[in-house]
Amino acid sequence: MGENRAAASGLFAGEDKLKRCIWCQASEAYRHYHDHEWGFPVIDETRLFEKICLEGFQAGLSWSTILHKRPAFREAFAGFDMERVARFGARDVQRLMENAGIVRHRGKIDSAINNAQRALELREQCGSLAAYLWRYEPERASRPRRITYEALRAMTTSPESVALSKDLKKRGWTFVGPTTMYALMQAMGLVNDHVDGCHARKQALAARAALQVPA
To answer: Does residue 55 carry a catalytic annotation?
Structure first.
């Protein structure tokens, strides 16, 4: 009965009695990611670029797989330093294809390198990757929208993620579909999709209120 109620509410209580979004119940690593990263606003360019790349690598896989491999990805991709990744050549591609610690998908590897090059172009045009991405934050109402578990399960894209995807594709980016971009927006705090009652929801809202978005 308790499990049924948790599934209906979209929340579960851990040993610390804190209520969390039910999707992070699977592992301690998931719970740490949920509590400290997911939905909290980010303007650091390296973290934003990393997340775009990792969302691309996730296509067709679970986020649990990518989260487990994230340390290896960071080492393989020079800490996701855009300038360094943009200079990757054929030897780097071969090195990455031989690295069992990451997802060895040639198209996704090529995409990460391409997107680093496009990110540098975008930075010159828009000032920073953060300034560009945060233009697509949905207009914030005076009261935060309520998020139910049923609504969250149905949210895979938004008008803003569709617009972001379309513009990035025009700029030559790859693996940036609307669903992928909505996942980026959720993770980087452009939207706060922690379910109502989740202990991290208020913390993420407070972090957003304190954030000064770059113009």
So the answer is: yes
Domain parsing of the chain, residue ranges: 45-210
- Does 32 carry a binding-site annotation? no
Handedness of CA 168, 173, 179, 181 (dihedral sign): negative
Q: Which of 30, 55, 136, 173 is catalytic?
A: 55
Q: How far apart are CA 185 and CA 203, in angstroms?
A: 17
Query: Closest Cα to residue 98, out of 116, 70, 72?
Result: 72
**Cα–Cα dist 12/25, whole Å:** 7
How open is the CA angle 169-42-133, to the nearest 5 degrees? 25
The reply to whether 33 belongs to the active site is yes
Region 120-143 average pLDDT: 89
Residue 146 CB neighbours (<10 A): 8
Active site residue 136: no
pTM above 0.85, yes or no: yes
pLDDT (tens digit per residue) in 58-80 = 998 999 999 999 999 999 999 99
CATH of domain 45-210: 1.10.340.30
